[in-house]
Design brief:
Elements lengths: L10 H23 L8 E4 L3 E4 L5 H9 L11 E6 L6 H13 L10 E8 L5 E7 L2 E8 L8 E2 L2 H4 L5
Antiparallel strand pairs: 1-2, 3-4, 4-5, 5-6, 6-7
C-alpha cells in the first residue's frame, strides 16, 4: 500500500479541495433528500396537485380555499382551539385517513394545540381547517346535515361539485 506524503507548500490546496468535496457532498445530499419532498409551506394531492398551506389571517385563509374552488363567507369565520390527541382513537384514525387523501397527515401533530377555523360556504355547507404555526395541517368539508360524513379537501372541489 503506497504511503502519500504531503508537502507543506501544497497543504493549502489540498485542504481547499477537501473542504470543497465535503461541501459538494452536503449539497448533493440536501438536493437528493428533497427530491420528493414538498416545501414547508405547501402540500400536494393527486387531484389538485401542489397547493400552498401558509395562512396568517382571514384573507389568506379565503385564498387558501380558492385553490380548491371553495368560496366562503369571510364574515362567517368561527375560531377556537383544539388539541390533536396524543393517541388516535378510531374516529381520529378515520379522520387522518381523510386528511391523507388531501395531502395532509396529522401523525406529526399529535398532542399539539391547533387553531380551528370554520367557514360557511357560499353554496351551503361548512368547511373547516386546522392551523398550526401559520400552516394548514388538516381540513374537511361537511354539508351540515346530521350524520353525513366529512369529505376531504381534494379535486372534487376543483370540479365544482362543492363550495
Amino acid at each position: 500500500m503506497p504511503i502519500i506524503y504531503f508537502n507543506k507548500k501544497h497543504f493549502g490546496k489540498i485542504a481547499a479541495i477537501a473542504i470543497c468535496a465535503v461541501l459538494l457532498t452536503g449539497i448533493c445530499f440536501f438536493i437528493g433528500s428533497g427530491r420528493n419532498a414538498v416545501s414547508a409551506g405547501s402540500a400536494t394531492n393527486d387531484e389538485v396537485g401542489r397547493f400552498f398551506t401558509e395562512v396568517n389571517d382571514t384573507h389568506s385563509i379565503v385564498e387558501f380555499f380558492k385553490q380548491f374552488n371553495i368560496d366562503v363567507k369571510p364574515e362567517s369565520e368561527i375560531k377556537d382551539e383544539i388539541i390533536v390527541p396524543e393517541k388516535f382513537n378510531i374516529t381520529y384514525k378515520y379522520y387522518n385517513t381523510l386528511q391523507k387523501q388531501a395531502g395532509f397527515n396529522l401523525e406529526r401533530f399529535k398532542g399539539v394545540k391547533a387553531e380551528r377555523s370554520v367557514f360557511t360556504m357560499k353554496k351551503g355547507g361548512k368547511v373547516t381547517i386546522l392551523i398550526y404555526k401559520g400552516k394548514v395541517i388538516a381540513g374537511h368539508i361537511e354539508s351540515g346535515i346530521y350524520g353525513e360524513t366529512y369529505r376531504p379537501l381534494t379535486g372534487e372541489c376543483k370540479n365544482g361539485k362543492t363550495g
